[in-house]
Amino acid sequence: MSSERHGPWSLAYRRLRRNRLALASLALFVLIVAFVLAAPLWADHVAHTGPNATHTTEKIVVDGETREVVDVEGKPIGPVWFGAGGEFFLGADSGLGRDEMVRLMYGGRTSLMIGLSSALITTLLATALGLLAGYFGGRTDSIISRTLDLIWSFPVVLLGIALGTALAVGGLKIGPLEVEGNSLWIPILIIAVVMTPYMARPIRGEVLALRQKEFVEAAVAQGAGSLRIMFAELLPNLWSTVIVFFTLNIANNMLLESALSYLGAGVQPPNSSWGKMVSTGVELIYTAPILAFAPGLMILLTVLSLNVFGDGLRSALDPKSKLRLEAHTGTVEPAGTAV
Amino acid sequence: MLVAVLALAAVATMGLASCGSDSDSSGKEGGTLNGTYASFPDYLDPALSYTQEGWTAMQNVYIPLLTYAHANGAAGGEVIPGLAKSLPQISDDRKTYTLNLRPGLKYSDGRPVKASDFTYAVERLFKVNSGGSPFYTGIVGAEKFAETKNGGIPGIEADDKTGEIVIHLTKPRGTFTNELGLMFVAPIPQDTPDTNQSTNPPPATGPYAIVKSDPGKGWSYERNPYWEKANSKAMPDLPSGHMDKIAITIVRNPSTQVNNVEQGKTDWMQTVPPPDRYPEVKSKYEGTQFRVEPTISIYYFWMNTNKPPFDDPEVRQAVNYAVDPAALERIYVGTLKGTQQILPVGMPGYKKFELYPHDLAKAKAMIKAAAPKDMDVTVWGDNESENEAAIVYYNDVLEQLGFNTTLKVIGADNYFTVIGNQSTPELDTGWSNWFQDYPHPNDFFQPMLSGESILPTNNGNFAEIDVPAFNEEITRLGEEEFGPEQEAAYATLDREYMEEAPWAPYGNRTVSTFVSDAIDFDKVIFNPTFGQDLTSFQFK
């Protein structure tokens, strides 16, 4: 089919449909989202407990045998699958005797929510800053770029820990914006801010290149204002980059959330997140490896699915990238399909 | 008339007294003890260290005028003469203490120990703003010196020629003999800088001297060359130790520490095995290489008696019924023994009682009857593994009782600074613990439950309980010399406080001794105040 008959989005869609690995990754991600969205159903109708309810001294009947949720030495019960009708499917999480499966599902909601929300904020912030810096240049560019450099100069995890620890006690108050110290918005905002330079700098570079193009000069010649040029001329040409960054940001931000929660500066107890669960599980890695393995596997699958899908999306939206990618395999995409 | 002090713990006869290492000549002499810590102690400076880890490291390096018996259990609470010839003589008004330095004492660099070195040690304590300085503000002039940091402390008279040291107190202090046995006031040379000396610890008076200190990595000891020549002759009742050298390495992963001890790569781990390995280590090695050691400590949840809903005693009592020490024993993976009272097992004055046997239904009914108007509470805890789990459990218990909780878990490093600052908002209830400074029950009432301990910052009375009758009793008992009558009075006070229920106490912590097969395990001493006694380690 000739490329001239299709718009760039249609072409990208067709390319994406041909990438089975990317589609499989998308399907896996959708499955993971469905899994975590089903948390209340599982908690209410199968496990009959909430994610933070403790059962330390309780007993359950597993395949006709009465067992302690946590034994007298503090060891939690292991996976009983459907031996107790779905209760403690993956066992208990620690000496607290919380249902690991329920926490895994609710923890996934937290991790995904943080990943998605922070990626959205990162994307909005980075796009706006990149546009402003790249379009106006001069002093505006200097101020924005140096501020981003300042954030960039700190190691991400260290900066995240410093902010997370400081804000965990008193929360955040900037003008009318007030966030409690144990709110999920604390890790969301921290991650969003510390990850912004990693996206804003490439966007700025792309805007700098686009600003020299003829269509921008034409818009200026027609008397278009700065806002119109930025949002009507430049932004549509950035969409492919922004979308690809967004998917990759979700994965990166989830990883950062896991690292921060693992180190105690992310999600605050009693809430669970996959990173927090790995942190708790590692303490029992010898006797109950599933407690670290299960959330660790979920992080791996989610990040992998997003990264592979993001890569597929980039290939579909950016044919130059596709050309380079396929050149390695000996297949070269015909020229003239630039989006 | 002057009277000799009978040490507090002389009333206790339990425990395995094992004073002096020369009493048993079996086993090897010499060698290097390789031990591990999970982290560097707070300080390797006797004036500054205020943790058992630090005190374990320095007990046999810096000897105060008085010290504690090198013995297990309650026997280890006995105050015995250290650098002083004998226990202090106390004046009739109990405000003047007289001690005499033993003659011929030397530091590990060969310089003589002088009486005025004690004065310098006390002054330095205030200059470096040590956490231990409040024990000594009762010395005449000390409070002023704490503010001005110059001019000396007139309440201490030291005669370098005779070795006599006379200490004048502003008012009687029944715990002062115990406090003279803490290494905060161990004499050190007067040219020791008044800054943290952890990287360059001062010369020793004990059998071992710290010869290298590398914070973050470890530290090592060698025999004090002047111990054999001078000090051991002057203090024959103190143990000399068996090892020639001791090397302590920081190994952050406690599981690696367990592996190293099992494989004989190291001889001792100061850290408790991690929860994951604890049951396995206990079942495999208990009695041969592993021992559970009780600490004189209390773990508790405090409730702010000044604010709703915990200003109502019935609400606080209900919380006590709802908290289940048996659950917390499991959460602490066998390193906690449940209790429901303030004084811990092993502390003189402890008399077991159980006012609030676990009954969640009764607790719910009591809350319903009390019908507190404010059900929104903020729950505070720190982020150390088991303590975080404990506060999560407590948060869940409060929710089961119908409270709307907000849980705030903050870093252990600044937890007590935050909850000890009364300007911190929403200090409703939370977690805390306390380890004894010395074996005297006053140490469990005065700092945490007396009205005068309620302070704007560095507050130790988190429940903010202020009952005048209890305050008077604490003051009276604190000024008296300890005896059977005082012991009974402290037991009564313990029960009276728990009837008011400012806390929901839940356990006394245990630690452990775990050594390699090469160590003569039965000889290893664990002193409840100082931890493992490094002079007691000996190769088989």
Explain what this protein looks like in three dimensions.
- The complex is a heterodimer of chains A (339) and B (540).
- In chain A, the strands form two sheets. Chain A has a two-stranded antiparallel sheet. In chain A, strands 3-4 form a two-stranded antiparallel sheet.
- The radius of gyration of chain A is 24 Å and the shape is elongated.
- Chain A is built from twelve helices and four strands.
- With 339 residues, chain A is mainly alpha-helical.
- With 540 residues, chain B is an alpha+beta fold.
- In chain B, 27% of the residues lie in helices and 19% in strands.
- Chain B has helices at 52-58, 116-127, 142-148, 176-180, 225-234, 254-262, 278-285, 313-322, 325-331, 360-370, 385-400, 415-419, 442-449, 468-479, 484-500, and strands at 3-4, 32-37, 66-68, 79-81, 89-90, 96-100, 156-158, 164-168, 208-214, 218-223, 245-250, 268-269, 290-294, 297-303, 336-338, 376-382, 404-410, 429-435, 503-515, 526-527, 531-532.
- In chain B, the strands form four sheets. In chain B, strands 2, 9, 10, 11, 12, 13, 14, 15, 16, 17, 18 and 19 form a twelve-stranded mixed sheet that branches. Chain B has a five-stranded antiparallel sheet with strand order 1-5-6-8-7, covered by helices on one side. A two-stranded antiparallel sheet of chain B has the order 3-4.
- Chain B is globular and about 70 Å long.
- The chains are: A mainly alpha (339), B alpha+beta (540).
- The A-B interface holds A 52-54, 56-57, 70-75, 94-96, 165, 168-169, 180-182, 264, 268-270, 283-287 and B 255, 274-280, 324, 326-327, 329-334, 383, 385-386, 388-389, 391-393, 395-396, 406-411, 418.
List key phrases describing it.
heterodimer, A: 339 residues, mainly alpha, two-stranded antiparallel sheet, 12 helices, 4 strands, 66% helix, disordered C terminus, B: 540 residues, alpha+beta, 12-stranded mixed β-sheet, 15 helices, disordered N terminus
